[in-house]
Amino acid sequence: MRKTVIAGNWKMNTDRSSGAELAAAVMHGAGSANLPEHADVVLCPPFVVIPIVANAVAGSRIRIGAQNVHDQPRGAFTGEISTGMLHSVGCTHVIVGHSERRLMFAESDYDVCRKANAVVGANLQPIICVGETIAEREQGRTLEVVRRQLRAALDGIFEFSIRTCIIAYEPIWAIGTGNTATPGQAQEVHAFIRSQLREMYGSAAAEDVSVIYGGSVTETNACDLFAQPDIDGGLVGGASLDASAFTEIIRAAI
Ligand code: PEP
After folding, report:
1. Are the C-beta atoms of 169 and 212 separated by less than 8 Å?
2. Quick one: which atom of ligand 1 is closest to the CA of 238?
3. Is 170 a catalytic residue?
4. Domain assignment of residue 133, given as a range
5. Euclidean distance between CA atoms 250 and 248, whole angstroms
6. Is 98 an annotated catalytic residue?
7. How many domains are contained in the chain?
8. Which of 2, 131, 145, 251 is the 20 to 30 A CA-CA neighbour of 192?
9. Which of 100, 107, 136, 170 does the annotation list as catalytic?
10. Stated pTM of the model
11. Residue 119: CATH number of its domain
């Protein structure tokens, strides 16, 4: 059975002290000891804040994710971080292909594929982001774009490891804008993603993959989004920086 996943992408926010405080407040608010087995709450702080947050949530069911990774294990890649380094500080998840990385740091579908494969190969769980721009949606190209990004990212990932992958549908026009996709718009794309997974990996595997929604999720719209049959949780940016809002979102999902 697929898991519910609620991930908080802190982006380039917090430092050691505010990060530790936020993690402690989320732990307290979410009742981390009593989180159900079928749900994973994942905090994704900036790299340098990961160790202190990992320390703050140690012993709880809250997981730690990174926001990016390099696809090579080591070497002359100034400024980059490897999967092994992430393992060593307690990460279990890694966001790959976030639209901010695709758009601002020129990450291609091929880069995303290499990263996703490196993450899976290191026994970490990738949260693979896909989603269309507003222009692509207006041109009626949403499903075509999502299909291309999804198939490219999953190239080289086989049926035996697809269940470790989490797919995040994040329409770019909804990220940080307050323009959340309607539950119907999101469900349409999530169902499409699952149909693609079915074609690629078969029905049983496709049913087990968590497909989560991101784009201006708040404590107000979370319930309606998560009530959709193919929406298995959320990737939350802005609202994950507010412990009480994020806690409400977790409650809406579990
Ligand atoms: C994100 O950046 O992944 C995101 C979904 O941001 P926000 O929730 O702020 O729209």
Report:
1. yes
2. 9
3. yes
4. 4-253
5. 5
6. yes
7. 1
8. 251
9. 170
10. 0.97
11. 3.20.20.70
